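Quick entry between incubations.
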Amino acid sequence: MNIASDRYVSTRGLSPETDFSDALLRGIAPDGGLYMPCAWPTLSPEAWSGEADYKRIALQAMSPFVGDALPAGALDRALDRLTAGFDHPLVTPLVELEPGLFVLELFHGPTAAFKDLAMQLVAALTDEALSASGERLTILTATSGDTGAAAVRAFAGAKSVDLVVLHPLDRVSPIQRKQMTTVQADNVLNLAVRGDFDDCQRLVKSLLADEDLRSRGRLSSVNSINWARLAGQIPYYVSATAQLGRAATFVVPTGNFGDAFAGIAATRMGLPSNGFVAAVNQNDALARAINDGLYSRRAAVESGSVSMDVQAPSNFERLVFEATGRDAEATRAVFETFARDGAVAFDPALLDALRSEVSAVSIDEDETRAEIAHAYQTWGRVVCPHTAVALAAARRQDRAKGPVVALSTAHPSKFGAFVSDVLGFEPEPANVIAALGDQPERLTVVEGTLEATLDAVAAFSGRH
Ligand SMILES: *Cc1c(COP(=O)(O)O)cnc(C)c1O
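Done. Structure below.
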């Protein structure tokens, strides 16, 4: 094991080096950068050649990142909890659709979407990190649906964490709302904000910066830049390769680029692969950056694959850091220019380096619908719009190089309205969705003002 894989530096180079526990609890580095391990550990080939036991693989893949920053056995206990919450023995089973074309099912967890895989681990590891120090933490997060649901299911009942989730009132689907509000846990506060998702995000930013709230206890957020979330997404690439018995091309339905970067991280650790394709929807900033060499901001537009409606993918910064040969100064220059001008052009050397890591394809709404229809007609398979984006891109890949694996990130019943609009019938509900039924819901409706939100949060934290 390489010692330095459990130490972390910021992609912007201006934060002190730290350990796994601190990177986990902070999320973002103090200089605004993203944490990266100081060195990549090497995975033993036995990780992907033996039986695809998820816990064994995840322990091998993740322990080098944790080091001794958490109480003994913390990762082991977190993985037991994760696997117990999934309704498939392989956790992330691989399914062959036709010769050489596979889907990796990432939706067998408590909210039927892939964010469960990392969020369940982050919640368990956060509780372990805090129990060691005796601290309490309030986590604040804004959601348009999926992230909030995964966070509520993961943090419900956590001993040392209070979770506050802000969602826009009447603007999440009934399933997404119920996944958040039917959890009867006293450490979870669901705020339904009169406003839209951007209002929720703005409020979370203001709450995180509020001096009075900060003076009452440690605050944090759970978003996809947290290193621990990324680390928790590495094992399923190893599992897929073990299930396949050979290297694959992975096609990843992409929003914030966390999922895709975890796969690239796995290859840095020695996992054999034939490359990565980031499949984006009509919000194509990443595809334009890789294909044209110009990374430029545009307003995001709503798509069927709504969890991928991102025009400034946060984890892209990690790829740029790697592609510059871990040059923090160059990385900082790219993202400061992007923040200031809304656009940045890559020099030819950087563009070549980025293209050697990943290629990118944009699939528009018509192609997404056509792919949902194709999957049903050809394989009798009902897929969610995110999976359809990946499959449309996967079918364009050359299978002569080896098998192509499209990541399937959500169960179709989570996005039933869009799917039934194409197929003319509602998908069978996943077990965890059927189980939501008519359970009582807990939520507090607030006006979209900082004052109203602060009052609600203060009343909630004052109950201890
Ligand atoms: C979040 C999400 C994605 C995108 O993952 P990133 O790591 O943000 O690229 C894709 N599909 C579904 C269903 C998601 O919830």
